[in-house]
Specification:
Length: about 800
């Protein structure tokens, strides 16, 4: 953003304040001055030249050989511009002059065998505009030899300021002047808009209808009749050129001038080209084509906010006007548009059609919705004065739902605590007043202020404290002589998450990262969604309730590009309402940190010696067991299985600890996968990380290996089908001797050969002692006793070899 010092002086008295101090104070207050361009220094060697004679270059068809008078002396200069001609006043750069564009010094040159002793310059080479089509031709009233700084009023200082996205108010000269007024305790002078309205009432010329009130909350308009389109006066041209704009005509130049003055983008319509003398603001219902002012046809998607007349589209709202209603040399009547458009709508349109303008740049960041009428009147006054037009009585101002100022409370004690030093109440009041805040309530302890709508970034008490700190000056914060250092143990909050991530990677999973903002459809899939207040788009209007939808979107994208065998994990926060009522505070919803594992595709591809094998739930379960083993939680959590009855799972697998669910997952239903265009099975499991970290794992302890040998025995019995494995195993452990340490089933078999309603179960028995070597006799005795007891208890029969 280029800001002119001479222009700033229209609103604030900066006399006696050095340029370096202005730049320093602006930077320290958050408006970083990236460059300072002093025109007196840059253009000190440029002078007015007079082209006495123009001849064709003897050795080049496209070059001209000119004789340029610089007052006392004449110079031979070679020029390649197509518009150079004899008897022109031009900008002449003698030998030794440094050209701003490219920062190079003019020297004596020989071009195609002919010497040249200087350069005739274009506006682009002087960095006064982007126009490089030809040389800059001056008016006849200036005398050759006159310094350009005097002839063109190039005695300004230009500040290049980097404006952060949260400060749309600073995208104007008045906005920057307001900050300087607060910093230097000066008075801000806003231009007068006292206008003489001589034409008929504005309602007789046009009317405005807003159909899309969401994306266009306000539309203000003034009418100026009987205008004459001409060049702008030199003062206006100079103002625009100094900040890098190219003057066009008195109407368009005023629109640009007011935008850079107030921050409000304007657009001037040729009123006679508006069918029905009507403006309609509405969004398109289908894809359409529109030719903009730059004569390019733009493809516009449905739901693009447009400015229309009674029959056709005439402008892309907030971006660019149309060729069918532009102001031309024959224009007589002007309709000035000064509107407030929803920043999200303009940002979306600008991005989709790939067109960014000075207007869209401001609308996207949020202009002041309550100053559209001021800017319209300001533009009408200037257009009337510069074009001889008459201003219609009154203003068209469609503003169905007024956007009110925000009220914020600030506590004086809180200011001192946050800043770390005491700042007086009077200083706080003065700073806030200079920044446009209005006092609503004041006491010894606190202050309630009304925040102007041109500061959408100020919403809370801490925002006001930041304003006080930056205007009072960060360099005025007193230094501390002592710094206290605590030697308390540092808790690494990221350590557990890093460990979880490392373990997940070691198990063969690839990490994914998804946006925590989702559409309502995705959020409703797994929970009770929470809508955010100011979403950027409908696809990012709700906080996610689970990591599952994001994971499925990632799987879907991978499958579409041919990657079908997937093992993925994600760590992230999810949000859920505690009740179904409205969110009023942080206590009304929960925020949990979770990890999800997802697998899909094949565990092994088809080879000559093996078939293709698809992943199943047990592949995921095995990975989960390994994951828990790394945290010493194997056999600590309880497993439960549920078949049917779930909205998204065919069957559900739940892990819990002392009746608290730690995680859940399973096989996702086909109808759920269909929403993501996934046709292969997907298995997933989601852990609550915070609950997982609270579970005490097994204590690591050294266990001396057994010094004495183990003895193994196994047997198989034929049981009735109704006999349970767990009952048999428990019976064996109860009846077995002390030396029997382990009982495990290793085979389960059913066959008609065993008999009707019969089954075979085979068990492996492990015998050992930590104190001695067992004898064959004692093992055999216990083994034989168990056989007879099992046969008797369960009416079972021992299977032969």
């Amino acid at each position: 953003m280029k800001i002119s010092l001479n222009w700033l002086k229209d609103y604030i008295d900066l006399s006696g304040i050095a340029v370096s101090e202005i730049a320093d104070k602006l930077t320290m207050s958050g408006l970083e001055v990236e460059d300072v361009i002093n025109q007196n220094e840059i253009y000190k060697d440029f002078i007015v030249g007079y082209v006495k004679e123009k001849k064709k270059h003897p050795n080049a068809d496209k070059l001209s050989l000119c004789t340029v008078s610089a007052g006392k002396d004449d110079y031979q200069v070679i020029c390649g511009a197509p518009n150079v001609a004899a008897e022109q006043k031009v900008v002449f750069a003698p030998i030794g002059t440094i050209i701003p564009k490219g920062n190079f010094k003019i020297g004596k040159a020989k071009i195609r065998g002919v010497e040249s002793f200087g350069m005739i310059c274009s506006e682009a080479e002087l960095e006064l505009s982007e126009d490089h089509s030809g040389i800059m031709v001056l008016t006849d009233g200036v005398k050759e030899g006159t310094p350009i700084t005097e002839a063109l009023n190039l005695n300004d200082v230009i500040f290049e300021i980097g404006i952060t996205p949260n400060r749309p108010d600073a995208l104007s000269h008045i906005g920057v002047a307001r900050d300087l007024a607060a910093i230097f305790s000066l008075e801000l002078k806003i231009p007068s808009i006292e206008i003489k309205e001589e034409a008929e009432d504005v309602s007789k010329y046009a009317k405005v209808e807003i159909i899309d009130k969401i994306n266009c909350p306000r539309y203000s308009s003034k009418i100026v009749t009987g205008v004459t389109i001409n060049d702008s006066p030199e003062w206006l041209k100079t103002r625009l050129k100094n900040i890098g704009l190219r003057p066009i005509n008195n109407v368009v130049d005023v629109s640009n001038y007011v935008m850079y003055e107030t921050g409000q983008p304007l657009h001037a319509f040729d009123l006679d080209n508006l069918n029905g003398k009507k403006i309609v603001v509405q969004s398109t219902t289908k894809e359409t084509a529109f030719v903009t002012l730059d004569s390019k046809e733009r493809k516009l998607p449905a739901e693009t906010l447009m400015i229309c007349d009674a029959e056709k589209d005439v402008a892309i709202a907030g971006v660019m006007g149309g060729e069918n209603s532009e102001v031309g040399n024959e224009t007589k009547n002007i309709l000035i548009e000064s509107a407030y458009f929803n920043p999200s709508s303009v940002r979306k349109t600008s991005k989709i059609i790939g067109l960014s303008t000075e207007a869209s740049y401001r609308f996207e960041r949020g202009i002041d919705p309550n100053s559209t009428d001021f800017s319209a009147k300001r533009a009408a006054k200037l257009i009337s004065e510069l074009s001889g037009g008459k201003i219609a009585k009154g203003i068209i101002d469609a503003y169905p739902d007024k956007i009110e100022r925000t009220e914020v409370r600030i506590r004086f004690a809180r200011v001192n605590k946050i800043l770390g030093f005491e700042i007086s109440k009077d200083t706080i009041l003065e700073v806030l007043k200079k920044l446009g805040m209005k006092t609503i309530f004041e006491s010894e302890e606190e202050l309630h202020v009304s925040v102007p709508t041109f500061r959408p970034d100020i919403e809370r008490e801490i925002d006001l404290i930041e304003e006080i700190a930056r205007i009072n000056g960060y360099d005025n914060i007193p230094t501390q002589d002592k710094i206290s250092i605590t030697l308390d143990e540092k808790i690494d909050e990221a350590g557990p998450i890093d460990k979880i991530r490392d373990i997940s990677l070691s198990l063969g999973f690839f990490e994914i990262i998804n946006n925590p903002l989702q559409s309502e459809k995705l959020s409703l899939l797994t929970g009770n969604p929470i809508k955010i207040l100011n979403p950027q788009s409908l696809d990012m209007a709700f906080l996610r309730t689970s990591l599952i939808p994001g994971g499925l979107e990632t799987i879907s994208r991978n499958i579409k590009v041919g990657e079908k065998n997937l093992s993925l994990f994600e760590i992230g926060h999810v949000f859920n309402k505690k009740e179904n009522n409205e969110i009023k505070s942080f206590d009304d919803f929960s925020e949990d940190n979770k990890i999800i594992f997802l697998i899909s595709g094949l565990t092994s591809k088809k080879e000559w010696n093996q078939p293709e094998i698809e992943v199943n739930f047990y592949d995921l379960k095995g990975k989960l067991n390994q994951f828990e083993y790394n945290f010493l939680l194997d056999n600590v959590l309880n497993d439960s299985y549920y078949h049917g009855g779930d909205r998204i799972f065919d069957y559900k697998y739940v892990k819990s600890y002392k009746n608290t669910v730690i995680g859940s997952g399973g096989k996702l239903k086909k109808e759920v996968l269909k929403q993501f265009d996934i046709e292969q099975d997907v298995f997933c499991f989601e852990y609550n990380i915070e609950l997982l970290k609270q579970i005490p794992g097994k204590v690591k302890a050294f266990k001396e290996p057994n010094k004495f040998p183990k003895v193994y025995r196994d047997f198989a019995f034929i049981f009735d089908k109704k006999v349970k494995y767990s009952d048999v195993r428990m019976f064996i452990k109860e009846k077995g001797a002390e030396i029997l340490k382990s009982v495990e089933i290793f085979d389960l078999f059913e066959s008609e050969k065993l008999g009707e309603d019969k089954k075979s179960m085979a068990f492996s028995l492990e015998y050992y002692s930590n104190e001695r070597t067992l004898t064959e006799e004692e093992v055999e005795k216990d083994f034989t006793d168990l056989i007879s007891q099992i046969e008797k208890k369960f009416d079972a029969s021992l299977r032969g070899n």
